[in-house]
Design goal:
mainly beta, 253 residues, Jelly Rolls, Seminal Fluid Protein  PDC-109 (Domain B), 32% strand
Amino acid sequence: MSDVTYVTDGPWGTGTGAPHTANSADTNFWILYSLIVALQDATPDTIAYFTVTGSNMWITMTDHYVFGPFTIPTAVWNFRGVWGATNSYAVNDVFTADGAVYLVIWPQTNSGASFYAQANDGQGHNYYALLLAAPPAELPDDGVPGQVLQWTALEIVCRYQFVESTQFPVGLTGSQGSAGAWGTGEQAYELYQNGANIGSINFNESPTDTATFTFPSAITFHAGDVLTIVAPSVPDPHLTHINFTLVGEVVLP
């Protein structure tokens, strides 16, 4: 801007005292135009990335200027143990009650005579927030000595939908099955036709190296039928890399 010339004296400095010539007027316009174009073409300075180390944060801009460090606020929890009657609790206090864990989110001067999870100040501010719910009972209410829990969810190994009629013989003659490592007990993988049990693939205890098949009668799967193979409810962790091939015969309609 120091290259711009003025005719009169003023806050901009000393003038030339003579009217502008065509050349000096054009020069002034050119200088101002060039500055405007430079502003339009300038790349805005934006945030390039953040750096966080511990509780400190730095902001690096696209022109490599760095702001910081800024201290990141850190919430500090105060573990109070089991909830107590007529106690005062501050924000971020943590306590247990009825097998669950709670965080105080609104200050409370007197917790009262008995615990109530939805306690509030009467103005819509709940005192507590649930962090961890109480776990369910491990045994049913009518459990007996020696009773244990057993996970019985069934895992579907595979599902195959037929596109043409295929008949499997009694005993699944010609079919094969084996494992990479054999288990320590018998394992039966059940076979289902459209949800109905029709047999099983049996992996016996090591050192057996060939699976056997339970298949009481010849079964025909028609187009659209689904063969499902389901793993045992309690899989043997020692039995690994099982494989099998079921042999059937395509039958003409």
